[in-house]
Each structure stands twice: as C-alpha cells, then as structure tokens.
C-alpha cells in the first residue's frame, strides 16, 4: 500500500486533494494542514515525511500582493518549505510532487510556454516559487516532480469565480481586465491530475521534472467572468472589458500565462480538459458546496 502525505491539506487545493484521495482505499493518506505541519521547520518536516512513499506539497503562501510586501516571509514558505521537503524526501527515499505556478515565467510570450521554457519571474511570489522548484530539481533529480498551475478556482478558498458571483449581487456592472491571457483551472480537476501523476510516478511511468497542470485552451479574466455569469444564469453583458492599467496592484501580473502540456503524454496521462469544459463540470458537480451552489 502506497503511503502518501499531503501538506497544505487545509487549503483550496489541499482539501480537494484529500477528497480525491478519499476515494482511493488502496492508498494510506496523511493529511497535514498548516496547523499540523509548518513546512519551514526542517525538524518537523523530517518527522512528517518519514514513513511515506510520496509527498504532494500543496502548502504555499498564496497571496501574491502580500508576497510583494514581505518577500522574505513568502519565500520561507514557497522556497525554503519545498527545500525542506525535498531534503527529507532525499533522506527517506520518498518521491515529491511540488505544486508551483506560471508566475515563475516572464509572461511576455504569445505562444504557450513549454515545460522547459527559461524561468524569469517578475514578482516576489514567482521568485519564491522558483526557489522551491530549483530546490526540488537539485535535491531530487530522479524522484522530484514540479507541477505548475495557474488561475485556480474551487470550492474551498477565495478565488476569481467566487468573487465574480459575490460581486454580482452588489453591482449592476463589473469591469474586468481583458488583456491578461491564461487558463482557468478547477482545483478539483487539478487534484485528480496530481493523484494520477502520483500513481504514474510510483509505478515508474512518469519521468521526473516539470509538468504543466492547467486546463487547455485560453481566455482572459473578462472571458472567464462572462462564462461564469452565463453558467450562473446571469446576464454576461453585465461584464465590461477594461485594461490592466486601470487596476494597478502591488505585484505585477503577467500578460500571458498560457502553458503547454506536452509532457503528460510521455507519462501515459491525458492533460486537463479545456477550461470551459472544466468550468461547466465545476458548476454541475454535486459536491462540494461551492460558492456557485449558494442560492
């Protein structure tokens, strides 16, 4: 029986991972929330990893703008945390799947970034996550996996889809940027993909290295907002397009966050579905109680 540790199990992605893994009686799962395990504590990490065959690290500092204000603290979680986990896995022989971000890339392309594209983060959050990626690659060259994701939404945490629906009840019109391109990704679908990668890794079918865990296709935040309104039975014309310079934020956002998915085929796994298909699935899913399920 494979023994699997999920860190960050109380977060949006972490809770979905636990839900997916609950359907797998063949796995012995330990779910560690932030209260259970501080990934910045090497001694605690060593003790937590011991006895497990594989670790999925969903623990992260996810507030991009606050990372800009306190880069050292954010990098301690997003950089030193994965380094501690990688070191513990190297000692114990466990494999590690590290969840990372499109923000490690420069965001200035016009075609999808391949997995081997050169990193060049433009904000503190991306720099910290890159430190984590590099630690995994350095310490676990044969048993370390990095899965970059982007534009996550789900039932268990603050996210763009939930925000749009909350604001729909407060404003007649919403102005949403139409010059940032990306791939909205349902956290529950990503959780399933991570578990599939874990299976392939344990079976020796998946080569180590970088994978891109985003949905196929692409849209803008404006396009996602309109699709969200339409699926919720609201008038999508209440969404109006605007530009990023109207909404300046502490951390710069990439204009282009579209990722390629070539490496999944080599592991015998299909990539995630088109973003709109996944959004429809999220709205139609009977569980868990997501923000869009609230009457």
Low-confidence parts: none
Q: Estimate what percentage of residues fall within beta strands.
A: 15-25%
SSE run = EHEHEHHEHEEHEEEHEEHEHH
The helix fraction, in percent, is 25-40%
Please identify which CATH superfamily of the domain at 2-158 and 184-217 and 259-272 we are dealing with: NAD(P)-binding Rossmann-like Domain
Distance between the termini: 42 Å
* Helix vs. strand class: alpha/beta
- Average pLDDT level: 96
- The CATH class of the domain at 2-158 and 184-217 and 259-272 turns out to be Alpha Beta
**CATH architectural designation of the domain at 2-158 and 184-217 and 259-272:** 3-Layer(aba) Sandwich
Number of helices: 10
Q: Main β-sheet, in a few words?
A: 6 strands, parallel
Shape call: globular
The radius of gyration over CA amounts to: 18 Å
């Amino acid at each position: 029986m494979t023994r699997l540790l999920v860190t960050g199990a109380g977060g949006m992605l972490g809770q979905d991972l636990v839900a997916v893994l609950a359907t797998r009686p063949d796995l012995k799962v330990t779910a560690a929330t932030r209260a259970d395990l501080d990934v910045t504590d090497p001694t605690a990490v060593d003790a937590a990893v011991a006895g497990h065959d594989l670790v999925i690290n969903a623990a992260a500092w996810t507030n991009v703008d606050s990372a800009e204000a306190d880069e050292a603290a954010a990098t301690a979680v997003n950089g030193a945390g994965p380094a501690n986990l990688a070191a513990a896995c190297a000692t114990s022989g466990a494999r590690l799947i590290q969840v990372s971000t499109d923000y490690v890339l420069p965001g200035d392309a016009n075609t999808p970034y391949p997995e081997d594209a050169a990193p060049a983060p433009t904000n503190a959050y991306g720099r910290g996550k890159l430190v984590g990626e590099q630690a995994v690659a350095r310490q676990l060259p044969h048993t370390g996996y990095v899965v970059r994701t982007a534009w996550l939404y789900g039932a268990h945490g603050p996210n763009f889809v939930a925000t749009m629906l909350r604001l729909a009840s407060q404003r007649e019109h919403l102005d949403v940027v139409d010059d940032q391109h990306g791939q909205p990704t349902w956290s529950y679908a990503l959780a399933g993909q991570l578990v599939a990668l874990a299976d392939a890794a344990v079976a020796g079918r998946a080569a180590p290295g970088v994978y891109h865990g985003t949905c196929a296709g692409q849209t803008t935040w404006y396009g996602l907002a309109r699709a969200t309104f339409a699926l919720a039975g609201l008038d999508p014309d209440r969404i109006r397009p605007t530009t990023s310079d109207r909404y300046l934020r502490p951390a710069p956002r990439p204009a282009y966050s579209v990722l390629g998915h070539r490496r999944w085929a080599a592991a015998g796994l299909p990539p995630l579905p088109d973003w709109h298909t996944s959004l429809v699935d999220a709205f139609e899913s009977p569980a868990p109680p997501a923000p869009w399920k609230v009457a």
